[in-house]
Amino acid sequence: MTARQVLQQADIARALTRISHEILESNRGSSDLVLLGIPTRGVILAKRIAAILDSIEPGAGTVGSLDVTMYRDDLAKNPTRAPGPTEIPAGGIDGKTVILVDDVLYSGRTIRAALDALSDLGRPRAVRLAALVDRGHRELPIRADFVGKNLPTAAGERINVRLLEIDPVEEVTIE
Amino acid sequence: MRHLLSTKDLTRDAAIALLDTAEDMADVADREVKKLPTLRGKTVVNLFFEDSTRTRVSFEVAAKRLSADVITFSAKGSSVSKGESLKDTAQTLAAMGADAVVIRHSASGAPRVLADSGWIDAGIVNAGDGTHEHPTQALLDAFTIRKRLHGAASRGRDLDGVTVTIVGDILHSRVARSNLWLLTALGAHVNFVAPATLLPVSTEGWPVELSYDLDEAVDAGPDVIMMLRIQGERMNAAFFPNAREYSRQWGLDDERVARLPAASIVMHPGPMNRGLEISAGAADSPRSAVLEQVANGVSTRMAVLYHLLSGAVEL
Amino acid sequence: MSTMRVTGATLPDGSGVDLFVENGVFVPTAPKGSTRIIDASGLIALPGLVDLHTHLREPGFEHSETVLSGGRAAAIGGFTAVFAMANTMPVQDTAGVVEQVQSLGERHGYVTVRPIGAVTAGLAGEQLSEIGAMATSRAQVRVFSDDGLCVSDALLMRRALEYVKTFGGVVAQHSQEPRLTIGAQMNEGALSSELGLTGWPAVAEESIIARDVLLAEHVGARLHVCHISTAGSVDVIRWAKARGIKVTAEVTPHHLLLTEDLAASYDSRFKVNPPLRRDEDVLMLREALADGTIDIVATDHAPHPVEAKDCAWGEAANGMVGLESALSVVQTAVVDTGLIGWSDVARVLSSKPAEIGLLDGYATPFTPGSPANFTLYDPTASREFGVGDLRGKSANSPYLGRTLPGRVITTVHNGYPTVIDGELLDSAIVAESAEAHRG
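ok -> structure tokens follow
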């Protein structure tokens, strides 16, 4: 099956800029915002969004990462995963608005795991979710607050997000 | 990873993966909620045919922090201590649905026999078998060394070029064997220092240098010096004349520790005989990593249990 | 009385013959009347094999082996006589016990059973057992051994050599310096160090052999050295023989084939005493057997129940069963490798062990008037050796799953068959034949 490009580099940049503005708008400013990316590409996206926020309101956009491997419910179904790092910004998350950032929102199980992980780390005032792509097929009552692009897909299709920080090209493809 | 029986089976990459996971586990220990739900519903059995409070507790804490159910089965002293009992016990545990068995046994190779026997399907972790191996001790030692050398930047690193001198009862030490294989897989150079009576009669083919002279070894300025515990019964079996002579020749005393480079790490798998193989001054000096070893034991064992129990069954 | 005609057999020297048996002995011409005819074309006729070193375990350890089950294991292996080691319970250290073992052997009839007497009372290594009483008993014991344990006390060993000489016997020594082998589990070397198993150093065997040959020389006695396992032991025996000392030596089939590497699996089927050694030891033992430095092959057949082996290596019993596989292992280790021929096999597994043990009837096999003890062996056969090939009570064979050459087709003991077409005859029939033979 050949891959079809659905987002180019410029589309991704535009989507992230829009998400950033929406975050500021819904949060009524950047105070007490903590962006937590879910490894691997969610962390990159979180850093980019943080940079955009910072350019709009200097000092905004505290960023970290949240690994959810240990909280997954499908560990026994797959080969052992090497966990990624969890880095919580110095101020912690208590009383903050946490924006979880992931590249693709699909079944919702990763986000479920992330919510569990968060609750072991502290008590945020609110938790929001940003995803570059929402491909549907949710298995849990979870929805994204900020979406770069809604992509209707068939269950058998794969969404590939490639970002220049770690990939040779920047694009989103479907195959 | 199906079982952890020996560090000789671990490749460099597999060892680094375990140590990296241990880093993540160590982070959990700093949180307010020191618990992960990862192994919820899994049953880990601590099967201890030999007393070892520290190792048993360390595994217990590790399993509990991963939310596994833990059953501790101390067979020592009960009717279960010889012969077919290993088989009977294993079959009993299999019937109880154990997912992993952490076994400490006085007979070398007992974990391997359990893994190969077909008596039980669980993953087997060797928590020390006779005078053979103690793989999780070696992993926590490697973790401790890496952490001291590289701090927060430890992830992904090996121990290339690090010199480790292990001193004492090499002949009977499962810690020395496991460390030799693991540390050399990670790129370290290992030296053994002991009286000839406490060295194996042959180490042909082992990646190690042997020496009898601790002073020379200290003056060589090793990155790590690891002192092994001397068991009282070795004296009765004439491996050396008496404690005083041993201590004078092969003990890490204040004078020797002062001659070590400031960055050298002093290690001991515990429990220590202060004043015999290690002086109180050496054990409590800033070079000493003894307490870190204990703390790192939990993270390392969490990593091992995670790798053993989280994935789909492989191999 | 059964008569027998064996056609087309090949003798160990390669010549083809028909063999005739009547009244338990070979006869020069075909017996008259109805005769059992055995077609032996393509088979080698070997003299009945004699094992100087068997553990039959009865009395006392009948869950491991009995005189009957051990006799069956021997017969299917081509043996017609076994020497039963003394470490039974009670120990074979009195006339009563050895006579009991002897008569059990006679009654069951698969093989001639010659009891070995203990050198020291209760195998305790403290005082001599009633050697004279055993020698003059109905069992007429000639071989004395504390096998399983070494007669380590030098003075006691000297006295044993001297005293046994009085009765024309021989001391068969289990050469193992006890202090050097406390807790020993396997050959001492780099591998034992790696596996964390206490080493059994070669010197513990060699030093006792050296001491014993010098004692034998000093008192002018005959010494037999059990199961030598190291290249160094071969050197000592070779030196002693060159010096004219009356010493004979045996090697087990497993020490001719297996090496210490097998311990790396911690599979206790490979735990044996003396332990499996290095490659270079195995090669030296083979050479020494070929050049006559080592006189005989003896099995050290040591049956153990499942529970004695189904455990960690350090907790497992020492020993392997070996009667059923001995000839095949000798074939693969030293015949198929070109080191010895079938005449040598006949010597090291029949005539020589009989000579050492002072067992009559094996000096001139196949000749008219000598007892009809022989086995027909198919050296071209090949089989994956399995539990189904064992006939004793225990299954602690190190060869299970290994492909071995050769197969015993027929065994004849005192003129009556114990094995026909590769299978044992029923024990009632064999017992009946044995009774008829005794008359």
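The CA atoms of residues 94 and 130 of chain C lie 6 Å apart.
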